[in-house]
Write a structure and sequence with these properties.
single chain; about 290 residues; 7-stranded antiparallel β-sheet; 5-stranded antiparallel β-sheet
């Protein structure tokens, strides 16, 4: 009798998504999504983290294929649907309108409730939810208020650090994307070649320890390694491409590569109980 394949570990998936997004999870479920560039609805496993919707190809994927910042939501409008047992509504944002469709009416009410709670910072009055679901909305509201306060304090902290001499490069490690490793070009290449299942993109220090580099491994006719320079320019970061791309932070740099390759590039991330040392890659000189 053939043994059943092992089930995926939900906890591991949650931890890896948390590392990549660096945002608290408030609500999740399947959504049909139609953005301006889509010809039709796309079916995604969707997570609401902070004020961002992250879209995954399926429930087990650890890396999102698209995301939508809903912080600037202008309004949420309901659409009349001829289909039974589903809910349709539109998110009106400053730069686009996004249509969402849920698999059933109850799920639609939940998505409406959570989206409005985190964007308006108040629990909506006109949602048909059970008492337990409303309590959950209040809990999320308090978490989001606390997160906003902490986030708003970050710029002043960053400015204070900029006044100090740039001596301890490693102090910022706790505020780096999960795929950042203090390794050389050679080590990064080895890590990608030996552990392809963990991802195919590493962010690492540049040779001058002031800027950064991204090493990727692409699977085409044969595996190919490429390196991209990421230059620190003022408060921004510029990816040195044929047409340079400037972004506000390193998290956005990683997001850019993921989105531009439609999820083919995935951040290289060890599981929570693994380290460079346990995988046979001792951290040494970056040269």
């Amino acid at each position: 009798m053939m043994a059943k394949p092992p089930k995926p570990a939900p906890r591991r998936i949650f931890q890896e998504r948390l590392k990549i997004t660096a945002l608290p999870l408030y609500f999740e479920g399947f959504l049909l999504v139609k953005r301006s560039e889509y010809q039709e609805y796309k079916h995604y496993w969707t997570e609401l983290r902070g004020t961002t919707l992250f879209f995954y190809a399926d429930k087990k994927s650890t890396t999102y294929v698209d995301k939508l910042d809903i912080l600037g939501l202008t309004c949420l409008t309901d659409q009349n649907s001829t289909e039974k047992n589903c809910a349709k509504f539109t998110l009106v944002l400053p730069k686009e309108e996004v249509q969402l469709k849920t698999e059933n009416a109850e799920s639609g009410e939940e998505w409406r409730g959570f989206i409005l709670t985190v964007t308006e910072l108040s629990v909506p009055q006109h949602v048909s939810l059970l008492p337990g679901q409303v309590i959950r909305l209040h809990e999320v509201l308090e978490k989001e208020k606390k997160r906003r306060i902490e986030t708003e304090q970050l710029p002043s902290t960053s400015l204070e650090k900029e006044k100090e001499p740039v001596e301890d490069y490693m102090d910022v490690l706790n505020h780096m994307p999960a795929c950042f490793y203090t390794v050389s070009r050679k080590k990064a290449t080895e890590m990608l070649e030996k552990n392809p299942s963990l991802g195919n993109m590493i962010l690492r220090p540049g040779s001058d320890n002031r800027n950064y580099s991204i090493t990727i491994r692409q699977e085409m006719d044969m595996p190919k390694i490429k390196h991209y320079k990421v230059m620190s320019v003022g408060n921004n970061y510029t990816i040195e491409l044929e047409k340079p791309v400037t972004l506000p932070n390193l998290f956005s740099v990683i997001d850019y590569f993921v989105k531009e390759t439609r999820g083919n590039l995935r951040p290289f991330i060890f599981s929570s109980d693994e380290t460079l040392e346990t995988k046979g890659f001792p951290v040494t000189s970056l040269k």
